[in-house]
Amino acid sequence: MTHEAKRTTQTHFDTFNLSKLTDKKHPKVTVIGGGTGLPILLSGLKAAKCRTTAVVTVADDGGSSGSLRTSLNTIPPGDIRNCLVALSDAKQIYKDIFQYRFAPEDNEFSGHAIGNLIIAALAEMRGDVYHALKLLQVMMEIDGHVLPACASPLVLQAHYDDGSIVEGETTIVSQKRPIDHVTVRHVNDGPLADEKPVAGPHVVEAIMSADLVILGPGSLYTSILPNVVIDDVRQALVDTPAKVVYICNIMTQLGETEHFSDADHLAVVNKHIGQKVIDYALINATTVPFEYIESEETPEYLVQVTHDRDGLRQQQATIIKSDLLNLKKSGVYHDQTKLVEEILKIYQQSIER
Predict the structure, then answer these.
(1) CA 20 to 30 Å from 204, out of 31, 138, 228, 298?
(2) What DSSP element (H or E) covers 188?
(3) For a pLDDT cut of 90, what percent of the chain falls above it?
(4) Can the peptide bond before residue 217 be classed as cis, meaning omega within 30 degrees of 0?
(5) CB under 8 Å to 61, separation ≥6 — which residues?
(6) Based on the domain organization, do 222 and 333 belong to the same domain?
(7) Which domain holds residue 123?
(8) Do 177 and 305 lie in a common domain?
(9) 263 and 184 in contact (C-beta within 8 Å)?
(10) CATH number for the domain including 322?
(11) 57-79 tens-digit pLDDT
(12) Same domain for 296 and 203?
């Protein structure tokens, strides 16, 4: 089945009352992405008692994750680590240990998070990352599921209008030029080098059985699309009966989305999927103060994403504009509570129809 085209409208919900969900099952939510925004959303969904699964990119090649990926030929563990902590019911001290990162003067351990080393070690002990995650599910008292988008590390490829191709997430971001589209491949020296990437175990099932599938928040080309362009993930997004929700970034991002409007973000996702599958787009409606745009804390974020009403209408999604802004000293973020509240409103609306 495919999603029916829907007329773009500004949706206004009545004041939402979480108690409305007491007579219904709490939503089964599958979130697809990576980066720093994903754990924030996951912990909020957990607090709202959603049945949550995170599908996490395996194309990260920077920092501790990139180093372990290269030396051990394993999937990068950093985003997985952060998602596990976000869904964990373990005591805070155990979470702190899992997240502890060695100091710069610690030689070969410099920059490595203990959790990254534990995930890599358990994957070696148990034979693969999925058996490692089953054990961590118990050890960390995980309320939900964390699934790598693919069972092996992938290389992100950016394709440009001039026909050139640049590989590797960190290299792509450093190019600072408009990307036409992205693809993924297996690493050249791995046993799957000549095969097309496929979704990891249970990923398609998580998308097909969800009430809501959420894309984002996160970097468009390096956190969200590396998952979407895996063929059976793309097809699952077309076929799923779930409502597909896209969380639009608040700020444009250096090396990825300069000059992008909210409609541009949706258009790029739909282009990579091959159909207009996004049912709802959550968009921040609050102006970001000038001093945050000029902040030296977040030089990779440029200006606030502009609003393009006509462009959004062409993407055939229901547009929800709301105050989603959370301003911190370190930068501009989505407000966790407000974001989850809007997601629960979408679910409530869908079960009442």
Answers:
(1) 138
(2) none
(3) 65
(4) yes
(5) 69, 70, 76, 155, 156, 168, 169, 170
(6) yes
(7) 61-144
(8) yes
(9) no
(10) 3.40.50.10680
(11) 999 887 777 678 777 778 889 99
(12) yes
